[in-house]
Amino acid sequence: MITVAQARPNERAEFIKRTYTHLAGAVGAFIVVEFLFFQLGIAQMLATFFMGSRFGWLALLGGFALLGYMASNMAAKANDVNTQYMGLGLYVIGEAILFAPLLVMAVLYSDPSVLPTAAVITLFLFGGLTAVAFTSGKDFSFLGGVLKIAGMIALGLIVCSLLFGFSLGLIFSFFMVAFAGAAILYKTSNVMYRYSTNQHVAASLELFAAVMLLFWYVLRIVMSSRR
């Protein structure tokens, strides 16, 4: 397999353009789905259901993890481009469902500036980290092992907090912002060194997952600071 880094400059430029165009499209689709959720009352229903029970959150996280695994496999391994798009679409919908309860709290029960502030911070952080990944010329694949260990620890803490009813607090949110930042560096590096030039859909899904993780914890931090 010829990776993007080994491809001709024009092919590399075209791949990057398509990848980030699809990333922007995924973010736009997420916004549209959330808008529809709010207009139809689905977001409020999801918030009532999942915020009313910690076991509801566990079921949501478990289902979302399964959906994410299936969607990423569909996008990365399928030869049919329509199947790849289906994987990306499923992941966008899964993110919209997961985010709905948090966005209900941000929109209906927090300062009106919380949501745009978190979005701007996320955009600047993602832009800065992307610039570092592309301009440094480094392969950040060494972060893969660190991310796996840190991810397992974070997931274990989240599950324990839901099972035993304790709060992880603001420090954990800052840790997860750092984790998401490292994931963006790692996955942006993968775009160049691990993907071929026909895998732009899979690459956009990986970046979208990292961006949404960053946004989730930035939003939680901003919400906590405005209380």
UniProtKB/TrEMBL annotation:
Query: Keyword set for this entry?
Result: Membrane, Transmembrane, Transmembrane helix
Q: What is its main location?
A: membrane
A Pfam family matched by this chain, by name?
Answer: Bax1-I
Q: Which range is the signal sequence, renumbered to this chain?
A: none
In the bilayer, the protein is annotated as: Multi-pass membrane protein
Keyword match Membrane: yes
| Compartments (UniProt record) | Membrane
Record bears the keyword Coiled coil? no
Membrane-spanning residues where? 20-43, 55-76, 88-109, 115-134, 146-164, 170-188, 200-219
Coiled-coil residue spans: none
**What is this protein's name?**
US12 family protein
